[in-house]
Amino acid sequence: MIEVTVAAQVKQTLASLKGTQATLEVFHRIEQDEANIKLLQNNSQRIHEIIERLENRVKILEFEEPQYKGL
After folding, report:
1. In this structure, are residues 22 and 16 in contact, taking their beta carbons and an 8 Å threshold?
2. Mean of pLDDT values over 48-65
3. Which of 11, 22, 24, 69 could form a disulfide with 62 if both were Cys (CB 3.0 to 4.6 A apart)?
């Protein structure tokens, strides 16, 4: 059984969130309805904030556990 580290799981989540944010931005560009545009913008911004927090967490994890750096 392969053990997945916390750092690896956080990085996988981070990659997934970045993909989700990119998708929201694509939908934002093609959306016509103002209410939907606002909803997409708000959710993209919320995901961006979460991404920033997770990126900071990755830095902490890599500092605390240098063997996880670059995974």
Report:
1. no
2. 88
3. 69
